[in-house]
Design a protein that fits this description.
Blueprint (H helix, E strand, L loop, with lengths): L6 H6 L4 H11 L10 H14 L4 H10 L1 H7 L7 H10 L2 H15 L18 E11 L14 E10 L4 E9 L18 E4 L6 H9 L3 E5 L6 E6 L9 E9 L2 H6 L4 E8 L4 E7 L6 H9 L2 H15 L1
Helix pairs in contact: 2-7, 3-4
Length: 312
């Protein structure tokens, strides 16, 4: 027979209760709260995440099924699905946003020295930018209009590749184009951002360059450019088949991005194709550039977990 604490109650001993209470007082969201205050609401949501619940019904029913043990889990009040649904509808999201941002600021420094596979750049901040679309009902979220009269929520995310910790999450309807996100996000100086070619908006990329921020992305085809310089000191045994400094020659592209850029060509033996990377970093080796882009896979794993949660 178990004589110790439940795992969930042990985890919750690290919960920053004071930080959360300050946020609750700031937005006055426990005013007239009866059965489900903000703290109990947060406990239910965290329990649902840790227990792998896939719906509000699961989150509500599991604690009710073990009602005698719920108190020892640290959940003071168990509620029905309708109460939980109502709380999600009316409670101010900024309470949980402030808690999440506090936790991110607390955790990110702990992973600052974590290695990124095949990228030996200690001290560099490296992020991945991508988005995922989660289908939803227009009746439940009238603002989230998507294509073909369907509802959809798009989650634009900046993920720190050291620890797979989100730095920024921006929620829009699914019609919002990926490249528009760079118009509202403020990147860090001297950091490296890797993204797919949906984000190749030359004006936004030029702003990143002017901000002394580096980017690694896929080049769109076709591109009109001239080769300014070619680096012949490359190793095709590791897949690098080209490393060039280029300059746009098209009128519009030249106007939007007047400076030189760098193209790294990498041969993917599995798909038997040459992948062209576009970057404004002229210092790192070509294989490092390719490996930085390759580490974008971390954000796909992050999206899978969040997709399951937001579907519930």
């Amino acid at each position: 027979m178990n004589q110790g604490k439940y795992v969930f109650s042990q985890v919750m001993t690290y919960f920053p209760r004071r930080v959360f209470e300050v946020a609750v007082e700031k937005y006055n969201r426990d005013f007239h709260a009866k059965n489900l205050n903000s703290y109990s609401h947060c406990l239910h949501l965290m329990f649902g995440h840790m227990a792998g619940c896939k719906s509000l019904k699961d989150i509500a029913l599991v604690p009710r099924s073990i009602k005698k043990a719920a108190y020892h889990l640290g959940i003071p009040t168990v509620v029905d699905p309708s109460s939980l649904s109502k709380a999600n509808e009316v409670r101010d999201y900024r309470i949980f946003e402030e808690l999440g941002m506090w936790l991110i600021r607390k955790v990110r420094p702990m992973y600052a020295k974590e290695d990124i596979p095949d990228v030996n750049l200690p001290g560099w901040e490296i992020f991945a930018i991508d988005s995922t679309t989660i289908p939803c009902s227009i009746k439940l979220a009238e603002w989230a209009l998507g294509k073909y009269s369907r509802g959809g929520v798009k989650m634009h995310t900046v993920l720190d590749l050291r620890g797979s910790i989100p730095d920024s999450i921006y929620i829009t309807d699914s019609r919002y184009h990926d490249s528009n996100y760079l118009d509202v996000y403020e990147p860090y100086k001297w950091a490296i951002y890797t993204m797919d070619k949906a984000y190749v908006g030359l004006e936004a990329l030029y702003r990143m360059t002017e901000n002394e921020t580096y980017f690694v992305t896929r080049a769109k085809t076709p591109m009109k450019y001239e080769v300014v310089e070619t680096n012949y000191n490359i190793n095709d045994l590791v897949g690098i088949v080209g490393d060039k400094t280029i300059r746009f020659t098209g009128y519009a592209s030249r106007k939007k991005y007047p400076k030189d850029l760098r193209i790294v060509e990498f041969y993917d033996a599995e798909k038997e194709e040459v992948i062209i990377f576009l970057t404004n970093n002229f210092e790192l080796g070509p294989l490092v550039i390719a490996n930085i882009y390759r580490n974008r896979w971390q954000i796909e794993s992050f999206f899978y977990d969040k997709y399951i949660i937001m579907q519930s």
